[in-house]
User: What shape does this take?
Amino acid sequence: MISDTIVEPRHLDIERASIAAAAETMRQQIDHALSASVPKAPSSLYDPVRYILAAGGKRVRPVLTGLAAKAAGAGPNTSWISAAVAVELLHTFTLIHDDIMDKAESRRGKPTVHIAFGNDAAILSGDVMIALALESLSRHSEQSHELLEEFSLGFKRVCEGQAFDKEFETRHDISMDDYHQMILLKTSSIFELAATLGAYAAGGRIVEPLRQFARHTGLAFQMLDDLLDLTADLAAFGKTIGGDILEGKRTFLYVEAMGQYSKMTSGNRTLMDRIAAHEATLADVPLARDLFDNLGVLQTTRVMIQKETELAQSALQKVPNPRDRAALVAFSEYLLGRNI
Assistant: This one.
């Protein structure tokens, strides 16, 4: 999936294992800082925060903050950790509130926060995570205006994306432009925030190339998630296969298929109507997969993932250090390297 023309890994002979080890070191630093950022009391407020942070996760967004900071020229004494903590707290806030809105009962194999602690505690604990994120960002004496401006923009955009996502649940006229705008806001905005905060934490160099890399990587990531929901191996995916079909989600696959609605047989139109009305059953999941496959939707999705990945890579041409370019490509390979 990843082109050699941008990072020239054969010429540089960079070991992916060393890049992975560096990312793991970043993840450990982030986990330590996250734990330290949460006060002890009142326990009713902060226990739910500790609960969801302890549930795990690969910390891909704050690791991107660290990689972006390094690519932007962060020296050994440059602190990007507080920016990374802010990114992960914002992302985790969205998980808590999304789970409440979706009435989800489990996440990462554990009861969701609102199931474990109740709705009131979950809402309040999610809210305080934004305050903790801002507190973490305030520790930067330089570029503080840019950091706070980017955080505010990212926070606003992810809320807008969630609002569009909820609106789309009851609409039958979602265009591909609508879908693209929604995932640009809901998914890509946090990836963009992660990269731009890293760049500003390092002094504000190459912000826009890193923003573009993160934007297109985020778009590819969401399209891949849409695809894997219907095509992945259950053990590898870690979530219910066909969950988007059962929930009537307006995914890339759904929108692309609906563009061919008039060409469908009456039976296939009835299937799409059930999905749109949130009335699909488990028996409809393989039917939807076969339909999407026959319509060419699965292949179209793969092509679009490739296109967004190539656009992300193109932005890296302006990253001056070849090793930093390779590290960012390795990050996207890891993120998008699931079997499609």
